[in-house]
Specification:
Helix content is 34%, strand content 26%. By secondary structure, it is of the alpha+beta class. The strands form 4 sheets. Strands 6-10-11-18-17-16-15-14 form an 8-stranded mixed β-sheet, with helices on both faces. Strand 2 and strand 3 form a beta hairpin. It starts with 7 loop residues before the first helix and ends in a 19-residue tail after the last helix.
């Protein structure tokens, strides 16, 4: 702390540290025993009259941060906030005694304090702790942001999340709802016989998805590793080993852009169920999301912006080709050559990367450009071209694979396969990805010989799905920016 950079209020707060020390009080506190949370107090006192509260004589010991102070001579009020809520405290010279009341008068907004007292109602009917003892716990050396405006800059709120949580009730709500959503998912899957596992974040091979990686170096091995872009290949190795139903909730890392729905470090869940397929894993995914919505929000129909997202009714299924036919009038099953497909793209000013030189790639570009944004209610889009799905079983028409992506509010929420378990086919697909990498596709997978060998020992027919936890939390907490649901998102430097 540079004293020369402090304002007058900060200097006054700093000077109080010496006063606390002179009184024999640690400015930054010791352990304190809490009897009730504020939420528990409100539940115990809910709808009770002043007479009933007096008869109840509920004594409490609470701790929290001072959010407001109204000092009025011999009697004062303050509001304190713990993790569960906010409550008013009445403090008086008669109730505390001179020494303890003088200690309270040294307090500033932002300080963390303890209060022991008895519950009552004010004349206006507000539930209030009538303080019998005030305990200083931790000095706040900076004034909190102004109450009504606070931190309004989204970048600054994300950078200083601690202040955002102090001042912003919505941020606090999201921070506590996110783990509730994750617990709901875990309980749902555990109840269906799945086992939660952990796999390695460092990977010697780029695979499991199409993405640009972060690269790090291991000094002892003198070898570069990737931060994982997916958990898929290791989870499938566990299926080969006989675990049958596994899932992992964990961080993935993709060295790509940042926007409202993308952060380079994000959380997903991947789920694999042996002896299932695309429809089976779709049914599981639908029920999992519906259950989470009901448990956390109280309803399977949730408000998102000015829309209602309906997770209650059965999710729609539609093939990618049928969707493109509806939107663009093109049947890609009738398009036989890349030249035909490129002509269709040129007619609609659709840019194609040089290595995306097949009908399947063009078809996928049409879907992403002209169809995806209109998928507002939960929709499984299935039957993808094989070129964009290197780990998926083929359909009867070998140009397509048994894959779906689940879209909600125009964005991908989940991606699922009937998993490819043919090691010979898998090796050919890896080789095709290597050719794409040679042509400049930085997102193409590398050859994973160990994974191919694992498949040679036999992986049962399997349905697998990956879902973005951050995006699900966004939907269930009505947040438009991914940084609102990640406590510490990746940020640009302040001076940019």
């Amino acid at each position: 702390m540079n004293i020369n950079e402090l304002n007058d209020q900060e200097l006054i707060r700093l000077e109080k540290i010496k006063k606390y020390q002179e009184l024999g009080i640690d400015p930054f506190g010791q352990a304190y025993k809490v009897s009730h949370s504020i939420k528990e107090i409100r539940a115990l006192c809910n709808k009770k009259s002043e007479k009933a509260l007096a008869k109840m004589a509920l004594k409490v010991s609470v701790a929290g941060r001072i959010k407001a102070i109204r000092k009025m001579g011999k009697a004062s009020f303050m509001n304190i906030q713990d993790k569960t809520g906010n409550i008013q405290v009445y403090l008086s010279l008669d109730g505390l005694g001179k020494k303890n009341y003088d200690l309270f008068k040294m307090a500033d907004i932002g300080d963390i304090v303890g209060v022991k007292g008895i519950m009552n109602l004010t004349r206006t009917g507000e539930l209030t702790i009538k303080a019998q003892k005030f305990i200083h716990l931790t000095k706040c050396l900076h004034p909190l942001p102004e109450k009504f405006h606070g931190l309004t800059d989204v970048e600054e709120r994300s950078r200083r999340r601690y202040l955002d949580l102090i001042m912003n009730e919505e941020a606090r709500k999201v921070a506590f709802m996110r783990p509730q959503i994750i617990r709901s998912i875990q309980h749902f899957l555990d109840g269906k016989g799945f086992t939660e596992v952990e796999t390695s974040i460092l990977s010697p091979i780029l695979g499991g998805a199409s993405a640009r990686p972060f690269i790090t170096h291991h000094n002892t091995l003198d070898k570069d590793f990737y931060l994982r872009i997916a958990t898929e290949l290791n989870l499938k190795r566990l299926l080969v080993g006989g675990m049958e139903r596994v899932y992992e909730i964990g961080r993935l890392f993709r060295n790509e852009g940042m926007d409202a729905s993308h952060n380079p470090e994000f959380t997903t869940i991947e789920i694999y169920q042996a002896y299932s397929d695309l429809r089976g894993i779709g049914d599981l995914t639908e029920k999992l999301i519906r259950n989470a919505a009901k448990e956390v929000t109280g309803s399977a129909i949730v408000k998102y912006g000015d829309r209602e997202i309906n997770f209650k009714d059965p999710f729609k299924w539609i093939s990618m080709n049928d969707l493109i036919k509806e939107k663009c009038g093109i049947d890609f099953k009738e398009v036989k050559t890349y030249e035909e497909a490129k002509k269709l793209a040129d007619e609609r000013d659709l840019h194609l990367d040089k290595f995306k030189n097949t009908v399947g790639y063009v078809m996928n570009e049409f879907f992403e450009e002209f169809c995806q944004a209109d998928l507002i209610q939960p929709t499984f889009v299935y039957e993808y071209p094989i070129e964009v799905s290197p780990l998926t079983k083929k359909e009867k028409d070998p140009r397509f694979v048994q894959r779906f992506e689940l879209f909600v509010n125009g964005k991908e929420l989940a991606n699922a396969y009937t998993e490819l378990n043919d090691p010979l086919d898998q090796e050919e697909r890896f080789l095709a990805q290597l050719e794409a990498k040679k042509l400049g596709d930085e997102e193409a997978s590398e050859m994973d010989k160990d994974f191919v060998e694992a498949l040679e020992y036999g992986m049962p027919p399997t349905g697998g799905v990956g879902m973005g936890i951050d995006r699900l939390v966004m939907l269930l907490t009505n947040q438009e920016q991914i940084r609102e649901v990640i406590l510490f998102p990746t940020m640009r430097d302040r001076d940019r």
